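Continuing the batch. This is chain 6 of the set; chains 1 through 5 are on the previous pages. Same settings as before, nothing changed between runs. Recording input and output for traceability.
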Amino acid sequence: MPKEIPEVPGLSEGLRKNNVPLSPVVKANGFVFVSGQPPFDIKTGDLVKGDLETQTRACLEAVKYCLECAGSSMEQVVKVTVFSVNAAHFKRFNEVYKTYFPKDPPARSFVTVASWPLDFDIEIECIALAD
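Output for chain 6:
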């Protein structure tokens, strides 16, 4: 199966418009790879401001949207990597995260980072099976 770059309405256009050299999602060899999703509103493309819980929901909604655009789903996720500017966010993050993966959660890493070029606290990427 050759590599495929599914179009993600809103996100794909925003990346092209801003000359960001990445694809929000790539399908290859029966897998779906979702690039790191900051807390952007999938309808407007605007950065979602707010507390960690609000940002986490925005990131996970963007991940879910990317998966759906690629023909997959949250139930097919096998690995998640979370990037956070503060390890102390771990407990609060988990409270939101478990609502998206209530049963048989995927493998996951939680990595602390120094900062991003924009003002947000969390970013989430994943690998899923293609449906």
